Each structure stands twice: as C-alpha cells, then as structure tokens.
Amino acid sequence: MRYVLLAKLVVQVGVCISNRSQKWSQLDVPDDANGQRVGILGYSSIRRQDARICKAIGMSVHAYTLHPRRTHRSRRDQGYIPGNLGDPDGTLPDRWYSGESTGELHEFLASGLELLVICTPLTAKTTHLIAEPEFKILGRDRTFISNVSRGAIIHTDYLIAALEGNIIRGAAIDVMEPEPLPDGHALWTTKNLIVTPHISYESTSYVDRVMEIVQLNLYKLSKGQPLLNEISRTDGY
Length: 237
What we know:
Layout (H helix, E strand, L loop, with lengths): L1 H11 L2 H7 L15 E5 L3 H12 L3 E6 L29 E4 L3 H8 L5 E4 L13 H8 L4 E4 L8 H9 L5 E4 L19 E3 L10 H17 L15
Parallel strand pairs: 1-2, 1-4, 2-3, 4-5, 5-6, 6-7
C-alpha cells in the first residue's frame, strides 16, 4: 500500500510534472485522504492490508471479489498474512461487491471511488477488464488508478487516452502491457502517469515470508490439512 499511496500523492501534487519541466514552482495542495473512498478490485490476503491502512487514514473501503461474500464466515481470510496485519475477519470494507458480469463490475466502479487499486489475477475473463467503458465510468469521479497486479488487465490504449484526455486524475502502474516496457513506448511520456518496473511487492521481508509459507504448508501437508494459497483450476488462479 505504501507504493499505491505514495504514487497517488506524487501525481496529485504535480511532482513528476515539476521534475520533467525542471521548474521550481509551488505545487498543488493535495486532497485530504480522510473521507475519500478506495475501491480494491480483488480483495485478497495481501490487499486486505491496503484496506487496513486506508481505514487508518480515514478512507472508506469498497471491496470487490469474484465470488459473493454474504456471510461473516465467507468473508474471513483463508490465505496467509503475517500477524497483526490485514483483515482476518473481513470486517473492514464498508461495502462489498462481487460477481463476474460487466454490470456488477460497473456498479462497483460507479460507487464514487477516488482511488482504484487493481489487484485481480490475470485470466481470460480479466484480460482488458478495464477498457473504454470502464474509464468512462471512472471519469465521473476522476478516479486515480493503481495497477499492482498484471498489465493486461488494463487496456493500454484506453489508459493512455483517459490520461491524456484528463478523464481520470492519474495512474501508477507497476505492471504493464507489454512488459518490460520498450524504449520509446507511449506510456513513458503519458501525462499524470508513474511507471515502475514491477517492484511494488518487494521488501526486505519478502523472502522470509515466502519461506514461512513454505514451512506452514509442509506442516499442513504432513497433517493432511488444506494448504495456504492453493490454486483453483476452475477460477484460473
């Protein structure tokens, strides 16, 4: 979440524009995060920590998942997350959306989001999930978009058009299509956009946490228990 919020602030106050123009100028005053609304498209174990941080700074949270989460039991986190982090009981979202249809997705996108965090897996159904119709909806609130999942979830041409046309406030993409981004690609010079080379997941604790999951799963395997972070062949992730 540090990546998402920092990138939003940098674009919002015009730091990247000021640096490119090599001008010393007063920057725009950023909006207060308190009272703003974040939409988390793909409310996974990791992204539940995003919700925790956003709630701590006064934002409301709208979650979106593929499958319905209508009961308290179904909203509990079944994946891995370090102690005292995330949303183990699934109680942080102010509203919870779900579904596979375009209409259900559009209802979520139209819920007044100042910030949209994209973190859904890439499947046949999510390829170019965010394209021209979706940008038109997000443009109503001039939503800031952060993609920390897979580049092909966003249609690149429509992302560029939305940014250059001031339809959305800005974007930060840690993943893109194509990846790695070739020299001379239009995304390098698109306004109000931050591009980073797939680094948002990195931290000094990353390897330690991976090994902890391995150890936990070896123990669960020895006891005949369900494993953490199992892939569903039906869902494709």
